Sequence to fold (458 residues):
Amino acid sequence: MGHEGHDHPSGDPNREHEHNPEHEHHPEHEHHPEHEHHREHEHDSFDSRHDPAIDPELGRGSGRGKVLFLDAPSGLAGDMIIAALVDLGVPAQTISEAIAALPMAGFHLHFGTRTRSGIVATSFDVHVDRSQPPRTYASIRAMLENAPLDDDVRARAMRTFHRLAVAEAKVHRSRVDEVHFHEVGAVDAVVDVVGSAAALAYLAADLFVSPLPMGRGFVQAAHGALPLPAPATVECLGGLATYDAGMDFEFVTPTGAAIVGAHALGSSRWPPMAPERTGWGAGTADLADRPNLLRAVLGTSLAIPRAAETIATHAVLECNIDDATGELAGSWIESLLGVGAVDAWAVPITMKKGRPAWTISALAPIDCADSVAHAMLRETTSLGVRRYDVARVERPRTHHRVDTIYGPIPVKVSGGPFGPALVKPEFEACAHAARTHGVPVREVLRVAVLAASSLAER
Fold:
């Protein structure tokens, strides 16, 4: 049994079509009759910058080592995030090229502008030209794995959809791979996830988001009326700050929640930063008490957030085992990594009566902690698992593939305001290349690091 998400034919005020694959054109689009005959994936050309000399497009990687802050007093949705980042300076072509790499058809994209309280903001819409098939999380994951996307874009998109699938599986008590997306997994939501992943990868900045307003009331979904905020939205926002907005309105959509939940390093009313660029993304609905806008601010960080002052982002899970061999401990580590742990390890200890034993530990994102704890109990002989939540300050990471005399090698580059970037080739790929060419693994590692040195200097 899977969940098809939330069908909000008129209840998603920030983006009324986000959960409805049969998108109804809003009045502000009716003056574009040419939309009806666009080619698949085509997007309207537009320039949201009033003066290119003042606000030129940002270069790729121009946010590396900087702070990207999403100021969301009116909430956020996937389209608002993309619109704000394009208005900030991410080229619209970056979004359209990533979307064009997907094996989907029957839709077109439109960038435009909307005015809210005198502020001219960028808008982003997905117009669905024909019905779209339902998609499972497994099928979406396979599509992303096989699409010719940049490695960092693919990783970000998969992280977002995994967070959304885990949230839906938890709400409906289904297996993650069997989560069935209908309107949430329709083409417009896939566009939002991949488009936002492309924009965030293009900037490569450290993302923070303001505390998010939570609306009240109910919204009609495929399974009936759901309370606001929607259950999946709350699950996706685990670890981020929220507050009561005091209004019957869906301020944050599940897709928007999954995007910031998967990529934001934390919440802040305003991070310590020196602003450099600002962009505005417009929602669809007109709100009575505030402009329906999302502000994106890019700037230089003035402080490194300390883990003790941030909300928990990860959980450490551990148990003690006194009846296992080293081989079993190794197999448990592999199992824990396979269900979402970002790290796992075994430490030899001595238990009561002098018995030699192991402490098996794992570090997992908050949204994966339950799955890792279940795997620990399933795979080991332990009767219980200890858990404590932690906050982690991370280097931003990008994934690349470099060409070497031993063939292409995947590498991970870790940057941020923490000194020189770190370059780490994928060991298994290096080991395979070493066996193929009859050279030591250390030689392939050396050549791969040299090939990637220019990436670390960007």
About this structure: The longest helix spans residues 151-172.
